[in-house]
């Protein structure tokens, strides 16, 4: 029997502001869409946090035996943050800065995005569509909105008519809980709004100026799609007019996701998504991460240790473990102390797990492993509560140590149940790797062993035992460790 039949799941729905019992549209199958990166620069840690949250959600849904179609897009065109100024196109700006073609920028940072996510052991989505690969669908969607009276053309651009949308009894602002009258009042005097009927109208298609590099033919002239349109076009194409889950960072709730709700509802006459999920922000040392303030670090800089914020490097497992100790809807703050504590905690958990094969079974169990197992599921079933799950995993580690010390007993069957449950949640659901000494700790141990061998080699050379000296050098070289003799002594590189 599929696990989901016995493990009822509750998910916090941004649209209702409440936890709701999750029931998929199609029994046993889930459609999930997550807004992917805008690939005009390196993926940042806040992005990693969002995608990691949905990676764990995806993993858990698969673990419950759901069939999941997970769609995560790549925004490679049309990301305008201000509809009134086409010069704000991020790809155009970055291409000029780096003196590269826009699609060179796209390729460069898409590769970087995948490299980072692979480093953190993310599962790939089922489908990863791009905005530029769905221009036709976006044009067709725009035409449909015009025909239905929800959009209008102006000077070669097309805008969604928010006033017309609300006039038909619909509610632009429902997702983000914003009052449309206040939105109108607060934005009437913005510059660059002359093409629009109303300030809150948003671009579906933008007319391309002669200097704009990325452009496509359309019924309204050469131009490019607005940012919000692509997600509606691609989610609808691959998941249908209504699907189960739509996720992203809380910074996308307004206007991006609000616009998606309006586009989908206007086109099909009903809400496009049953459950809206939003991850909270990432801070560092108690402050918002920002390039302008210097409180900023890239994911690979955290791993390599090449930064001014952390005392050493941290292996990807440790970063992942640290991130998952905060609920996805809570603010996550990272610091040197938090990373060091996560490293110690992770190693303690894995070292306990590795003791399982040496546990001696007894005729009876003094610990209730079945109830403990369900407590792990209860944590994840309560809106994917990874901090509570991790607390339960440490409880499992405590059980192992009790049995190992002879202070408790487990039957052979319960030892197997304990082992399988820990393995399922640590490695399959949380996506951690089975390594005993994580990151820099493991690196330090390797460094210590190599330095010991170098000392042995130096002693052999001093004793004119050149055969042993050469053997140590050659064996290290076979392992990919190159030693070099210089004026300041012997060094090595891997």
Summarize the structure.
The chain has 494 residues and is of the alpha/beta class. The protein has 16 helices and 15 strands.
Features of the shown structure:
Rossmann fold, four-stranded parallel β-sheet, alpha/beta, four-stranded antiparallel β-sheet, single chain, 494 residues
Written account of the structure:
There is one protein chain. By secondary structure, the chain is of the alpha/beta class. The chain folds into three domains: 3-279, HUPs (Rossmann fold, 3-Layer(aba) Sandwich); 307-429, no CATH class; 439-493, no CATH class. It contains 16 helices and 15 strands. It has helices at 45-63, 90-98, 102-119, 135-147, 162-167, 180-187, 227-239, 253-268, 299-304, 316-323, 336-353, 369-381, 386-404, 412-429, 439-462, 466-478; strands at residues 10-13, 18-21, 29-34, 67-72, 151-154, 157-160, 202-207, 223-225, 243-249, 273-279, 282-284, 287-288, 332-334, 482-486, 489-493. The strands form five sheets. It has a four-stranded parallel beta sheet with strand order 4-3-9-10, sandwiched between helices. A four-stranded antiparallel beta sheet has the order 5-6-7-8. It has a three-stranded mixed beta sheet with strand order 12-11-13. A hairpin with a 2-residue loop joins strand 5 and strand 6 (157-160). Helix 4 (135-147) packs across helix 7 (227-239) and helix 12 packs parallel to helix 14. It is globular and about 85 Å long. The chain starts with 9 loop residues before the first strand and ends with a strand.
